[in-house]
Amino acid sequence: MDFRHLGRSGLMVSEISYGNWLTHGSQVEEDAAVACVHAALDEGVTTFDTADAYAETRAEDVLGRALKGQRREGLEIFTKVFWPTAPGRNDRGLSRKHIMESIEGSLRRLRTDYVDLYQAHRFDVETPLEETLRAFDDLVRQGKVLYVGVSEWRADEIARALKIADEMGLDRIVSNQPQYSMLWRVIEEEVVPLSEREGLGQIVWSPIAQGVLTGKYLPGQAPPAGSRAVDEAGGSRFIKGLLKDDVLTRVQDLKPIAAELGLTMAQLAVAWVLQNPNVSSAIVGASRPEQVRDNVKASGVKLDADVLRRIDDVLGPVVVRDPAKTVSPSKRP
User: Fold this and answer.
1) pLDDT of residue 23
2) Secondary structure (3-state) at 66
3) Which of 80, 164, 216, 274 is positioned for an S-S bond with 121, CB 3.0–4.6 A?
4) Does the residue 257 lie in any domain?
């Protein structure tokens, strides 16, 4: 396993992270979830990403149990706050009240005294940004959070947060967690250039495009039984736009490239996002340990300029680049 700095911070993370958005606490039994976490550990993964809202807080609980007994100093545990976790009006958003209460719940479920990275899961238009950043800064001072980051924020939102932190003398955000893959390149236009200038690293989710880049979805055919494309709980609403014959046909055309490199399609997809120097880590999930062992083999893979050009030539017409085509914040994972 190779490691990278999280942005310009001193924190090192495994370039493959293990995430449990769609699995732990909902899709798979706990024994299988624990087996996946242990497979990740066996393969050298030290970075684990979750959120309080995943599976209505159950994902954090499962991850905490799965990591029990591991040397805490050797792990980087990330979680997030924003989405509702209870019915109260203050059980959501980025108010000081919700942040301060949510971190306590996350620490309890994760069975740890601190998290390495605490992320604003979305931008909160109803709370002053100064209030949110001050609350995060206070958690850093209390030792409950080591670093702060954001998830799926636009470039202008990130820039505002950095400006306010500098003016108020608060801890700066060090990372952003966006969707990024060969097919979804929205961050390349504005978020990545800003992040490179300001020292943020990307922790990217869905590098395999919800499984589309594995090649298992075939043009003109119904999705395989049990796949995410037919399971709303498994995130099917996020891949419907990719399940078009022109997209699926071009994904099939990547198979010869992967084969020439001795990679699976999934490994090629993960390796591709890691070629971007602004990516600190790529999050992979799994419902079976063998999926973890397969995906982590993308660590350390170098794709030369010719391979990257061939991929662009194959996928060019179906790549999403325009930020205006992103789903609304209320519909993001």
Assistant:
1) 62
2) helix
3) 80
4) no
